[in-house]
Each structure stands twice: as structure tokens, then as C-alpha cells.
Amino acid sequence: MERLQKVIANAGITSRRKAEEYIQTGRVSVNGKVVRELGVKVDGNDKVEVDGVPIYKEEPVYYLFYKPRGVISAVSDDKNRKTVVDYFTDVSERIFPIGRLDYDTSGLLLLTNDGDFMNLLTHPKHEVDKVYVAKVKGVATKENLRPLTKGIVIDKKKTAPARYEILSTDFEKGMSVVKLTIHEGRNHQVKKMFESIGLPVRKLMREQYGDLTLAGLRVGQYRPLLKKEINQLRNLAKN
Q: 62-124+212-238: which CATH architecture?
């Protein structure tokens, strides 16, 4: 017997957290009866439906995607904007992004239909490094970046210490390019961190996730993760 939300996530419908929302809003039925309680457990003999469609367990798949700017990190959008899954036209599994990148942020994004894998990588207690390259307005220096290495308060909560590297500075234009490494994934976190020290972000890209990079990919392209890469991510998250 497994919890209903886990069964839905493992079937590749959506993440486990989202599955809980589906249950609470009456979108899930078990053996013909709508279920709204999160504690319900089911087994292989139970008929589970989401929005009236029976679910089945898909083989897990894992992809690394070079997300372009101007694309939503979601499976659908109520404003009919392009989403990341629109690039996976030859993938039959129902995949979803692990975490998100802002609409105007490009770079490395992982997608899967494995809800447990997604929960492992996005849980706050698991520290997987994410590396961003930000073009910021202003001259970046050791002095104004130092607060990031100690943690700063954004949205009433202190961030974990970050690491930085100043890649370039254009004194005439008053612009800098800074590489920032964090392991959290809060909403608009990188932009808010730079904003808080007076260096607003003008362009942002995520270039690395754990040991994974965008090597060999152009914007809008993706590739399946190797088995060893999947295992490396699991190990990074558990350590």
C-alpha cells in the first residue's frame, strides 16, 4: 500500500506536492469515488483517476535541458506562453521540471516523470550546488559581494552562504559579470540576493547543477541523463 499522492507522482502525472493539491481540490478519484484526504493509501488493484483519466506507471525518464529565455518552467500556462515541455515533442512520458528557472532566465533545467527524484533534489535539507552567471548593473567588488558569503535576509529569511567569482567588469558602462554558487532554490533568489546589495540583475543564466553542465547543448536542446549522472545527483542530495 502506498500513499495516493506518491502513486500519482510515480505515474508521471505531476510532482508529489502538486498531487496533494489535486487530491484536496477533488481532481482525484479511487475506484470511482472522489478522494480529498491526503492520508489515503492504495495498491495495484485500485483504479486511480486524475481528472477522469486512469493513471498508469511510466518508466522513469530524466532529461537535461538548455532552457531559453522567454519560456515558462511549467507543463502548461494559462496565458498560452511557451513552456519547457513544448520542446519535448518526441517524448511520450508526462514529464515536469525539477524546480524552475524564471521566465527571463536561461540555462540548465532538469525534467523528469519521477516524483521521488524531484522531491529528493528540491527538498530544502538537501544541498546540491547550482551555479549561475549574472550580468549585473554596477561595479562588483569583494566589498559589496562579501555579504553574500555570509548569508543575507531576503523575504524575512536568511540565505545560506554563497560563493562568488567576478568574471569581468566594464567600468565605462558600469556593468559586471559575476558567477554565483548557491544550493537553495527559493523564488527569484539570485535576483533578490544581487538586488539586496545594490547590483540589480540584467541577465541571468544557470550554467551548472551539481556536476552537470550545458556542454554539447545549444539553447533549446536537451539530452537524457546518463545512469551515472542520475546516481551522482542522488548521492549529492543525500550527502
A: 2-Layer Sandwich (3.30)
Distance CA 34, CA 44 (A): 18
List the grid coordinates of 2: 502506498
Catalytic pick among 102, 114, 129, 170: 102
Q: What is the pLDDT of residues 128-169, one digit of tens each?
A: 999 999 999 999 999 999 999 999 999 999 999 999 999 999
Task: Tell me if residue 102 is catalytic.
Answer: yes
Grid coordinates representing 205 are 543564466
At 92-114, the pLDDT tens digits run: 888 999 999 999 999 999 999 88
| Selection from 34, 48, 61 nearest residue 222 by Cα | 61
- Three-state SS for 215? coil
Q: Which of 194, 196, 189, 192 is nearest to 178 (CA)?
A: 194
Polymer length in residues for the chain: 239
| 169 Cβ contact partners less than 8 Å away, ≥ 6 residues apart | 139, 140, 175, 176, 177
Contact 200, 138 (CB under 8 A): yes
**Domain at 2-54, CATH from 3.40.50.410, 3.30.1130.10, 3.10.290.10, 3.30.420.40:** 3.10.290.10
Nearest to 189 by CA among 159, 231, 145, 219: 159
